[in-house]
Design a protein that fits this description.
Number of helices: 0
Low-confidence stretches: none
Largest sheet: 6 strands, antiparallel
Distance between the termini: 19 Å
Radius of gyration: 14 Å
CATH architecture: Sandwich
CATH superfamily: Jelly Rolls
Structural class: mainly beta
CATH class: Mainly Beta
Number of strands: 9
Shape: globular
Order of helices and strands: EEEEEEEEE
Length: about 120
């Protein structure tokens, strides 16, 4: 078993087109020899957002703190602490912080894409 803490990993700013005020840390991933999945922790500052994007792998999200909205295809849904979301492969999505406090969520992704290449940030 590997045991770690959310605050034990280095946080880095997410610097991609369409991103505003988002930071990420890999909690468990390639550096830990995870064979199948990576666990990532994101913090989205008030007014911040992830890019509106799609990719060829699914992921699961657990909201830890803050409030916001998630675009999923043509649908927009609100989210709150304790909400769990599933984003299908190839589905356009975006997470936005619409509240006054930082949004924190855990994102679980496969370690590799269908073609065998690594998932970015895993």
């Amino acid at each position: 078993m590997i045991r770690t803490r959310i605050d034990s990993s280095e946080t880095t700013a997410v610097e991609l087109d369409g991103v505003k005020d988002v930071a990420m840390r890999v909690l468990l991933g390639a550096a830990d020899d995870m064979p199948n999945f990576s666990m990532r922790h994101f913090v989205v500052q008030p007014g911040g957002h992830t890019p509106k994007h799609a990719h060829d792998y699914e992921h699961q999200v657990i909201v830890l703190a803050g409030e916001g909205e998630a675009d999923h295809g043509n649908e927009t849904v609100g989210f709150h602490p304790g909400d769990v979301m599933y984003v299908e492969a190839d589905q356009t999505h975006q997470f936005r912080n619409t509240g006054a406090e930082p949004v924190e969520f855990i994102c679980l992704v496969p370690r590799t894409r269908g073609d065998g290449n690594p998932v970015p940030g895993s």
